Amino acid sequence: MDIKLLLLKDYIAGANRTREQIAEYLNVSSRQLTRMLKKWENEGLIDYKAGNGRGNNSKIDFKMDVEEQVIDYFFGAIEKKSIEEITQLLKLPLPQRVKRQIHTVINDAVANARNEKCYIYPDFSYMEYISFIPSSYHPLTLLDPNTSLIIVNTMSRLYHFNEKGDIQPFLVIFEEWHENILTLHLKRNVKFSDGTVMNARCVATCLNELITHERYKRFFSTVECIKASGLYTVEITGTQHIDSIREKLTTLPASIYKEKEGEYIGTGPYCIAERQRDTLKLESNLFYFNNTSDITTLWLTTDKEEYNDFLKARQFTELTADEVVSMESFIFNPRSDRLNIKQRRYLSLRIMDYFAQQGGTSSCRLFDTYLSALERIRDNEVIFSDAVKILVRQDSDHHLKLTDYLQSAGIPLEVVMTSSHDFKYMHLDDSDADIIGMNEIYEPDRLFYGWLQCSKFKEWFKDMACSTKLRYIYTNRHAAYWPYAERMYGDYLMKQALFIPVYRIEHHYRFPSSFKNVRPGHFGIVDYSKIIVTAA
Fold first, then answer.
1. Where are the alpha helices (DSSP H) in 50-126?
2. In a domain? residue 391
3. Which segments constitute the Transcriptional regulator SgrR N-terminal HTH domain (predicted)?
4. How many CB atoms lie within 10 A of CB 28?
């Protein structure tokens, strides 16, 4: 932050100044002044129009709030500033509003310093296997288990679910409603992993990106405006009293972050310390406002051999998540005109027949009721004039065997293979497929609503009338009505032969026996900061 920009704004406000006067006031030469103005213009801070000829005035328009930039600059390194530097800062031509905010930051920093105790925590490293290193950790990307794991452990959200499943404030001290305006009062001791303080403008920026993002804006249609109304207060204005807003702010896309040198950093228990082709190193966030983690370093590797070598010398227990965290299913393209409903039902029967022959525990199978309810269709009743285009994952043995089974039944197929990684980053419309097999993480109580927020399912089904209705119910109706709406939505998809639930997958986790309090949270993602490491 160049303080001269603030001095310039104050000096020329409401007055005509010559270049010589401005240069003298800023203690620079006329040539240096010209270079500074050009530099600030190139940085997008001002619009500078030089006057040509005698008597033609130059014009400077400020494109940003200079005073707010001073506050951000002050936030960035308050602990490193001396009393003299703070005194000089307060002598600058700042509005009283800004000076009061600076005083607030100083008081908070002093109070936090008094409350902080210096402990030396033992280092403890752990390694976890992931299928690939994500190219981006932005919360608004299409989330998969690997990206979700990183976001859960490096970023925080305004609200979270406690162990009982109740929504609790996390980055918020308290909230208050006034008609259709929700005011969030933020905690004052929250810092990003680079040491800068999280303020209301940071939060408002993240939330505004969320509610205007193409993937999520439908879920915030009743939100009119989000703004920072104070240093630590955020106002969310809706077209009505939005009961569901707190729950939406618990989701991973609602994580709070900021961009620094092309990286996304958060306020969570860990920060990204090192990235290599096959590994990602997370270290404890030294500025984390909550409890310090027992696991201080977490290595994420895509090398199974390296991971197994790491665990080989350690005893581990196998843990099963209590909740169902992913589902294998098939969906039909609702926009494709190559298949009619009878053909879709016939294909659904054949797909369920295949999985019924594979056995497996009935507790994990999800299609038995659907299979028994569908009227059987004889082979000679259905004719396929065109090949059915099916998109399957080449790393799924079931998918590969299923295509062989369907072709042996006389169904003409055009099989398109893709990897799990490529499947994540492609858009389903680009595949032009009639049917795809997918495995998606989900929350049992909010299956379809969750998928309509963030999954491949959303890419084909988001614009359907039934999807719009489901979103409306979640936004405008009481939570007690949501399970019924979910059931009706699923029934409709199955009656139209657009969705085949195959089986659920209970994820198993391997951890050393000395690890306690291992609790996979939403979507089966483990928060490693909550693990307690005991004596082996």
1. 66-76, 83-90, 96-115
2. yes
3. 19-105
4. 15
> Does any domain span residue 443?
yes
SS (H, E, C) 444-498: HHHHHHHHHHCCHHHHHHCCCHHHHHHHHHHHHCCHHHHHHHHHHHHHHHHHCCC
Q: Say if residues 143 and 253 touch (Cβ distance below 8 Å).
A: yes
Distance spanning both ends of the chain, measured CA to CA: 51
Q: What is the CATH number of the domain that holds 427?
A: 3.10.105.10
**pLDDT of 105 above 80:** no
Return the ∠ at Cα 522 (arms to 516 and 528), rounded to 5°: 35
Task: State how far the Cα of 198 lies from the Cα of 190, in Å rounded to an integer.
Answer: 6
Reported as a single tens digit per residue, the pLDDT across 372-385 is 778 888 878 889 99
- Cα distance between residue 24 and residue 29, in whole Å: 7
By mean pLDDT, which of 114-118, 151-155, 349-353, 361-365 is the weakest?
114-118
What's the pLDDT score for residue 269? 93
Q: Which helix (H) or strand (E) holds 311?
A: helix 304-312
Per-residue pLDDT of 448-497, as tens digits, reads: 998 887 678 988 998 899 999 999 998 888 888 999 999 999 999 999 99
Prediction pTM value? 0.61
pLDDT at residue 322 tops 50: no
Instruction: Count Cβ atoms below 10 Å from residue 61 Cβ, excluding itself.
Output: 9
| Full residue range of the structural domain in which residue 411 is found | 326-505
Q: Phi/psi of residue 499, each to 5°?
A: -145, 130
In order, the DSSP letters of 150-189 are HHHHH-B-SEEE-TTS-EEESSEEEEEEETTEEEEEE-SS
Residues 171-219 pLDDT 10s = 999 999 998 899 999 998 899 998 888 999 999 999 999 999 987 887 7
Query: What six digits make up the tokens of 507?
Result: 């994820």
284 in Cβ contact with 272 (< 8 Å): no
The total of structural domains in the chain comes to 2
Any domain includes 358:
yes
User: CB atoms < 10 A from the CB of 335, how many?
Assistant: 12
- Dihedral sign (CA 424, 427, 430, 431): positive
DSSP structure string for 232-263: SEEEEEESS--TTHHHHTTSGGG-BEEEETTE
Query: Residue 170: inside a domain, yes or no?
Result: no
User: Last residue of some domain: 16, 49, 64?
Assistant: 64
Closest CA to 189 of 126, 115, 263, 137: 115
State the pLDDT at residue 117.
47
Percent of the chain residues past pLDDT 90, beyond the cut? 31
Helix (H) or strand (E) holding 340: none
Q: Using the 3D structure, point to which of 64, 79, 113 is the last residue of a domain.
A: 64
CATH code where residue 18 lies:
1.10.10.10
